[in-house]
Amino acid sequence: PTESPDSDIVDILALKQIMSKLEQNDRALLELRYFKNMTQAKAAKALGMTQVQVSRREKKLLSQMRKELLE
């Protein structure tokens, strides 16, 4: 069995919907990390945060998003 190409589209739409609900600074953090491939240290500098703050916030956001996607 192969996965339907439509499932990729559904996943992308779900991700966009979840990200649209995030606060602007949280959305910016995820965009820097996952769409612009910045390290935590570089993202932290761009956002005026520490690397530890970015790490903790990122972990919390990803956990929240996973939970929403599985609902």
Describe the structure.
- Helix content is 80%, strand content 0%.
- The chain has 4 helices and no strands.
- It has helices at residues 5-21, 24-35, 40-47, 51-70.
- Helix 2 runs antiparallel to helix 3 (40-47) and helix 3 packs across helix 4.
- By secondary structure, it is mainly alpha-helical.
Total beta strands: 0
Assess the beta-strand content as a share of residues. Answer: under 5%
Largest sheet: none
Average pLDDT works out at 91
Overall spatial form = elongated
The whole-angstrom Rg is 14 Å
Helix content: over 70%
User: Secondary-structure element sequence?
Assistant: HHHH
Please report the number of helical segments.
4
For the termini, the CA-CA separation is 25 Å
Derived from helix and strand composition plus strand pairing, the structural class reads mainly alpha
**Poorly predicted segments:** none
What layout of secondary structure does this protein have?
Layout (H helix, E strand, L loop, with lengths): L4 H17 L2 H12 L4 H8 L3 H20 L1
Quick take:
The chain has 71 residues and is mainly α.
Primary descriptors:
71 residues, mainly alpha, 4 helices, elongated
